[in-house]
Design brief:
Elements: H1 2-19, H2 21-26, H3 32-59
Helix pairs in contact: 1-3
Length: about 80
Amino acid sequence: MKTSIVLLFLIILNTSALLSEPLAVIVKDLNPWFLVALEVVLLLFFYLNNQLKGLNELANIDLSDIELFVIKPKKNSK
């Protein structure tokens, strides 16, 4: 959850840097393609983070409903 929030914040900040005029003055020396590439990388990390989180939820096994019967073997009397 925390990683998703940080990634969303960085995505929004990077998009703001691309589209906002006041922030454009700050990043005027940067190549806009660098920011676009950074945006794509951040979106990729966000997607991978969500997929791995779903995989982690699938990997959790709930064994609370299993009823287990243990049968002791009979001893052979000779």
